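Checklist before submission:
- one chain only
- standard amino acids only
- sequence pasted in full

Submission:
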Amino acid sequence: MKEIVILSGKGGTGKTSLTAAFAAISRDHILCDADVDAANLHLLMEPDVKQRTDFMGGGVAVINLDKCTQCGRCRELCRFEAISEDYEVNEISCEGCGVCVDLCPEDAIDFPTKKCGQWFISNTRFGPMVHARLGIAEENSGKLVTLVRNEARQLAEKINLDLIITDGPPGIGCPVIASLGGATSLLIVTEPTVSGMHDMMRVAELAAHFKVPGMVCVNKFDLNIDQTKAIENQAKEMNLEVLERVPFDPLFVESMVYGKTIVEYKNDSAASQAVKNIWKQITASADKVS
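Returned file contents:
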């Protein structure tokens, strides 16, 4: 089974727009939205939810006042100052580290898990999709990413599909690590800016650590040709495969207004042709790896 993960190192590079376009081009795949903190692939996919499941994540400390002797040990240990003088836990301040639970001399503090969000299995016009929504200010996004990827893999095996297209989260933190490990190949979507090069390099270093082969495409390349060339040269130095460039095209935004991908909205545009060529390059590269 092949899993192609699309990352960017930051938000706003066009990662999700390209993922949605790939979904429109490809056939016989599972879509996976691993950007659980700020999921937006569903806005273009319009999923029909078939299964909805609560995600139970980290807990918040709860003090049993009947057992508590108010010795002050928990308040002394809590570096987040989440426990009041009345020995009540502020749920917003509590980071769920569990130190107070482990070291309370009276065993007066419980640590129940709580609902942190939901994950879904849906049907879309391009096939099945596994996605999730993390609650506001909730923790454990990496754990939820892992769950979503595992469910996508199980669903693919169940219905005999051998390709997963995963829209990953921005940055290089825990959710990105959770979305990258074990993938067949990685596409880094960047833009022709100095920060775009920096973000690409950070993701490429992460991919190298996990031994995931990487590819790079520059979106909106014609906004700065010199920087595009610099990014592509740097990518080659880092043993990344450089794919076709995507030109700046207002049709990307226009197509979103109508809830469509660029290839659905204007199949013969220069941007659509570039996206289709990139998908051919991605699949050819993934076939070599597998």
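Reviewer check: The first strand starts at residue 2 and ends at 7.
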